[in-house]
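Run log, item B.
One chain of 122 residues. Sequence copied directly from the ordering sheet:
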Amino acid sequence: MRSTLTIVVNGSKRRIVCEQGQEEHLQHAGRYLDRRVREMKGNVGAIADSELLVLTALMLVDDLSEKQEQIKNLEKLLQEQKDSVIDKTKGSAPPLEVVLAEPRLERLAMRIEHLAKIFAEH
């Protein structure tokens, strides 16, 4: 089943058709896009809407790329920490739950999950 909702981007209302249950997520995404478009408009001044949207899309892709790199670095760090724990136990690796129970690794795992969630939402 489909739903229709309205989002406002840079003062213009846009009707969006989506799957039922996705409304809240798309409303959130629409507010985020509107905020970023207004931010870009504040930086570049008066330009055509199409150019403004392209510049905003490029900014968002750059943000996404940066977040992906952060996730990759955190995953690498987590793997290094896990390998270190395995080395300390002389090859008898503890279960992942034990590895993640270490406070630093637990925080890293939570950060990776948080960044992955942000990535999925935007």
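Observations after the first pass:
- The mean pLDDT is 83.
- The domain at 1-46 is CATH 3.30.160.880 (Double Stranded RNA Binding Domain).
Flagged for discussion on Thursday.
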